[in-house]
Amino acid sequence: MRTISLFMFFRTLTKSLLAPLPILYILLIAFFAFNIKGKKRVGKYLIWISVVWFFMISTPFLPKTLLASLENKYPPINIPVSSFAQLYEQGVCVNILVLGSGYETDDRLSYSGQLNASSLGRLVEGIRLSHLIPRSKLVFSGYAGRQKLAQAEVLALAAQELGIDSTVIQTIPEPWNTKNEAREYFKRFGTTSKLYLVTDAAHMPRAIMHFKKAGLKPIPAPINFVIKKNLVLSSYTDYFPGSQNIRFMEIIIQEYLGILWAIIGGD
């Protein structure tokens, strides 16, 4: 357990340092350090790199393009109820796995109210699919971290608040990341059931990679699309620098680093 905690600490530290704003801070600190040492030419290059980096992460051009490339890899499931009738007739068992994303314990709130925006979106999509697919089971995953209940358990309780019968719900409270979610699901259910995988659209490419490596063949059910194909013309103010674009870059860096880490065999 101590080894896992130490590993997670260093992984979190690395992810924090490789976020858009910390990279900018590192560049600026390096600029001041070189200037203090009298290496003003190097400092001049660093300040220009800092300006270019700030422009890249704060304006929508690069963040939206890269994020859309992740989100558009797998289309959302948006088909009529009749399309699932064949599954019912054939007696196919279907599991809808909703990956954990996070929540904050607050006893004043309902369980659904304690979920973060990403988790709530995933929960809603899982419930929507469970209504569409006859005889399907809802499976929730995710560990407790520092909270008193596992993410999987809170999702299950929130689903019951929203009218889902407890008999069609199962939880996998052990896994702390996507790779382990795939492994634990395989241990619990194997490949006997058809699997629909629910997670954020930007996270789906990495999730599919881990689940395929675990020997599973999930059907992607992406949700929480950030870049929507809105036909309404954008306002010119949408192209100004903004904190939203920096948040987009955080998602992009996190997911591409995660994909790279998965390719080399990491978590």
Q: What is the overall pLDDT average?
A: 86
What share of residues is helical?
40-55%
Query: Which radius of gyration do the C-alpha atoms yield?
Result: 21 Å
Question: The CATH topology of the largest domain is what?
Answer: Rossmann fold
Name the CATH class of the largest domain.
Alpha Beta
User: Proportion of β residues?
Assistant: 5-15%
Uncertain stretches: none
Structure summary, number of beta strands: 5
Q: Sheet bearing the most strands, described? A: 5 strands, parallel
Morphology call? elongated
- Domain module tally: 2
Task: State the distance separating the first and last CA atoms.
Answer: 16 Å
* SS element count, helices: 11
CATH architecture of the largest domain: 3-Layer(aba) Sandwich
How are strands sequenced across the largest beta sheet?
3-2-1-4-5
Structural class: alpha/beta
- The arrangement of helices and strands along the chain is HHHHHEHHEHEHEHEH
Characterize the structure shown.
54% of the residues lie in helices and 10% in strands. By secondary structure, the chain is α/β, with parallel strands linked by helices. The chain has two domains: 91 residues, no CATH class; 143 residues, Rossmann fold. A five-stranded parallel beta sheet has the order 3-2-1-4-5, with helices on both faces. The longest helix is centred in the C-terminal third of the chain and has 21 residues. The chain is elongated. The model has no long low-confidence stretch (mean pLDDT 86).
